[in-house]
Write a structure and sequence with these properties.
By secondary structure, this protein is mostly beta strands. It has 1 helix and 16 strands. It is about 5% helix and about 50% strand.
């Protein structure tokens, strides 16, 4: 049986289209966002954390800017948000925000965050200051970071690669650790691609065979 949780129309344009509504599922909880614009928050969203077992909204969170990355774990909501280049359709000057049941008001964890993964209480994200601050619209030098409660202290999963052209991207987090890719676009035919795994028990990252 399918049930409609929310409905509406997308009133925003970025480039040739509009941003899809963010959503994430964790157990019996669903987090989703609806457009919530105001004069002071023209790209704002309202995030709702819904208990699917009861049908009740447990918490709402208002964002200041456009959402880029989005995740839910254990009732905590993480999202990256930023300003919007409407002509070219990308987000820049981003920051990583976190709202937890204990601290529902969203607070900033890091600047210049884009893609993120949030599972089993562990959060991982790609941070790219050059792309975020210079409004480049494409990856420049992303690096992967991670954090877990209760202190949510950001930790780099690996030292910066020896070559500045190497991109660390596509993090995936769980209680076991963080996986991510490294790619060197200067190497032809995909020869510069590798998969890595960071282990929180050793604080080391190694390539996956």
């Amino acid at each position: 049986k399918s049930v409609t949780i929310a409905s509406g129309s997308n009133a925003r344009l970025q480039g040739d289209g509009g941003p899809p509504p963010p959503l994430a599922l964790d157990g019996t909880q669903l987090a989703y966002a609806v457009q919530d614009s105001s004069a002071s928050r023209p790209w704002g969203w309202q995030i709702r954390v819904l208990d699917l077992a009861t049908g009740l909204v447990q918490r709402t969170v208002e964002t200041d800017e456009e959402i880029y990355g989005f995740g839910l774990s254990g009732g905590a909501v993480a999202y990256s948000e930023g300003l919007v280049d409407t002509d070219r359709g990308f987000v820049y000057k981003t920051r990583l925000m976190l709202s937890t049941p204990a601290k529902p008001d969203p607070h900033q964890l890091a600047l210049d965050a884009f893609e993120l993964s949030f599972r089993d209480g562990r959060l991982a994200w790609a941070q790219d200051p050059a792309s975020s601050q210079q409004q480049g619209g494409r990856p420049a030098a992303p690096r992967v970071w991670t954090a877990a409660g209760p202190d949510w202290r950001p930790v780099s999963v690996r030292e910066a690669p020896s070559s500045p052209s190497v991109l660390q991207e596509w993090p995936a987090a769980s209680q076991m650790g963080v996986s991510f890719t490294e790619m060197d676009p200067t190497v032809p035919t995909g020869g510069g691609l590798s998969l890595w795994f960071w282990d929180p028990t050793t604080s080391r990252a190694e390539t996956v065979p």
